Amino acid sequence: MRFFSLMKIKINGEETDVTDGLSIFGLLELLRIRPGRVVVERNRDIVPRDSFTATMLAEGDILEIVHFVGGG
Amino acid sequence: MEDFFELAGTKYCSRLIVGTGKYKDFAETKRAIEASGAEIVTVAVRRVNITDPNKENLLDYLDPKKFTILPNTAGCYTADDAVRTCRLAREAGVGKLVKLEVIGDDRTLFPDIPATLEAAKTLVKEGFIVLPYVTDDPITAKKLEEIGCAAVMPLAAPIGSGLGIRNPYNIRIILEQAKVPVIVDAGVGTASDAAVAMEMGCAGVLMNTAIASATDPILMAEAMRQGVEAGRKAYLAGRIPKKLYATASSPLDGILT
């Protein structure tokens, strides 16, 4: 019996397996990243923060999760 | 006397814009920025380290309600990368101000001018308030202004070099023709360099390394604040012309004979 399956996605250049049916919000929770401090790009399109919960990840997705760091 | 400069309708009393890179930690960053009196601070956009347990964020130390956050496009070598970075920055919800820099090569960190112009066009069209880092070239500065940039930011000298203003005559020409604020960006080494830029009539000075890499960054931040203020006041006060020969300060009448 199979409860869930895994899918391959790329996060910040690293290939990762995540469970099927995971939202962006769910992924950030899993990674312990505060959603309010990051911007997420999915397959080169920016995902607005208010769509984090509704946006489901799909096999082969390429995600960039960025934030502000010190810079000049 | 109220003295301020305006960027896209917002008034700023501090003419010192500071970067947040190269500090020991966020606490030192915060202390240096407070000592500098800056109201605008630059930040970079980078990938979150997803395996790093330290989840502290720069914005935990810099309240975006208190400071104007100016995201940069440092590290971008193409117009597309710079535009992409600006779009990501805007989504972070800190406003539409961006410091556009499209780097030409990693040895000089001089800007790639055609790419900077191209990115500026796209960003202005998309409603960004664009502050472009540019070489001290009056023609490029003019073109950037014509595109609709809110300021022009000629470099004093290469980023992080600490050489001070290398070509004051070009900066003067840029100042003479510009109708937008001219902010000297990059290359300042110490407080007198900042004062020189302000004495020439620049609207502001942007710096990072000169403060962050000083032996005592907090003290240097204070020195830079005072250097910028002193330079600005000297500019407003109107300096005396330079003359080759002496003019006596004491009266010539009533000298004992």
Précis, in short:
Chain A is mainly beta and 72 residues long. Helices cover 10% and strands 39% of the residues of chain A. A 5-stranded mixed beta sheet of chain A has the order 2-1-5-3-4, with no helix packed on it.
> What string, H for helix and E for strand, traces the elements of chain A in order?
EEHEEE
Number of helices of chain B: 8
The assigned structural class of chain A equals mainly beta
Helix content of chain A: under 10%
- The N- and C-terminal alpha carbons of chain B lie at a distance of 47 Å
* Major beta-sheet overview of chain A: 5 strands, mixed
| Tertiary shape of chain A | globular
- What's the arrangement of strands in the largest beta sheet of chain A? 2-1-5-3-4
- What class, by secondary structure content of chain B? alpha/beta
Q: Over all CA atoms, what is the radius of gyration of chain B?
A: 20 Å
Poorly predicted runs of 5 or more residues of chain A: none
Question: Using DSSP, what is the number of strands of chain B?
Answer: 10
